[in-house]
Amino acid sequence: MERYIEDAWALYNHAVGELEDWRRSRGSILLRDAAEKAWGAVTQGANELLESQGRVVPSGTNERRDGIRALERGDRRIRSLGLYRQFATAELILHRDCFYDGQCPPELVADFVSDDVREYLGDISGVGNGRT
Q: Containing H/E element for 96?
């Protein structure tokens, strides 16, 4: 079961590494790649969350989003973490705007990768371990 969260943390670590490379070179492709690795970490975290709660792991973003929303409707402690909002925000900022559209405000992306994704994965790890 922990395969997804392990993948999520590995992708997160790659995103942080690419972010550090971007800080040295300021190459826009590195920033976009960091954003996409961070988005991959978010999706793998969502897979972990869904599987840890006995849900089928979906193959698409819409199904992941719907699954997280369903979990929040049924579990107050999960809802209190705001995981649905975090997932949807990561999709918009990291995946759609930055990676696909090239709209990557550097400080927003850097903060999101460094802080928000790490917090999201930590929250999901806590849910899986019953610590919320």
A: none
CA gap 44, 50 in Å, rounded: 10
Task: Tell me the C-alpha to C-alpha distance, in Å, between residue 76 and each of 1, 34, 97.
Answer: 23, 32, 31
Using CA atoms, how far residue 75 sits from 4, 58, 80, 129, in Å, is 21, 20, 9, 15
Q: What would the pLDDT profile of 46-60 be if each residue is shown by its tens digit?
A: 999 999 999 999 999
* Neighbouring C-beta atoms of residue 55, cutoff 10 Å: 16
Domain ranges of the chain: 3-128
Nearest 5°: the CA angle 79, 32, 62 is 35
